[in-house]
Design a protein that fits this description.
The protein is an all-alpha fold and about 200 residues long. The chain has twelve helices and no strands.
């Protein structure tokens, strides 16, 4: 396991410190995992698998010498709703909604476990705002563009959401775009906003 962990960390371009931070363990724990000097705690498996982009259950499979699903977790952003994205990712990382909430908080984003659960069931009071979507992305450790697309696809199940013409125009604008194209549009928008806010304007 030590050899596989080290190889995967290096293939992802992560330092020991960065991998440990992503997994939620200290540097000494990760170093001990790679040199075999420490026994890995069961409660640390989910974080280590997440940092290595391995499927849930990979470490347990390695320890049992079973078939090891050492493949990254992939969610097709073209298929699911925001609720499906949250539920699938939560099961993959094996964390509770409260643990996901704490993970978002550690990254500077506030979102409650209850809100995450409501979003997972496609039952929020209204269409989630930008700060909520950023918090969801942080909690799930996923690109913000993936979360935005899933939310846009889910909008039709929230008929009581507040009418936001800006949101409606955005949905219309990006409806047929690929994630990379949406990121490009966002970069252009950011540049325009920065130019408008520049002190010499």
């Amino acid at each position: 396991m030590a050899r596989l962990v080290q190889q995967q960390r290096q293939s992802l371009g992560l330092s020991v410190r960065a991998a440990a931070r992503k997994a939620g363990v200290d540097r000494a724990t990760w170093a001990g995992l790679e040199d075999g000097s420490r026994e890995t705690q069961d409660r640390q498996f989910a974080g280590i698998e997440r940092a290595l982009e391995w499927a849930a259950g990979s470490i347990d499979a390695i320890r049992r010498d079973a078939a090891v699903p050492l493949v990254p977790w992939v969610f097709s952003v073209g298929d699911g709703t925001l609720g499906e994205l949250i539920a699938t990712r939560r099961n993959q990382v094996n964390l509770t909604y409260e643990q996901l909430s704490a993970r978002a908080g550690a990254l500077g984003h506030e979102i409650s476990g209850r809100t995450l659960a409501r979003l997972a069931n496609n039952n929020p009071p209204e269409f989630p705002g930008p700060s909520t979507l950023k918090a969801v992305a942080a909690a799930l450790d996923l690109p913000l563009a993936d979360v935005r697309q899933a939310a846009t696809r889910t909008a039709h199940v929230w008929p009581d959401r507040k009418q936001d013409h800006g949101t409606d125009r955005w949905e219309e604008l990006v409806r047929d775009l690929e994630p990379a194209e949406i990121d490009h549009v966002l970069n252009v928008v950011r540049a325009v906003v920065q130019a408008i806010r520049a002190p010499d304007r």
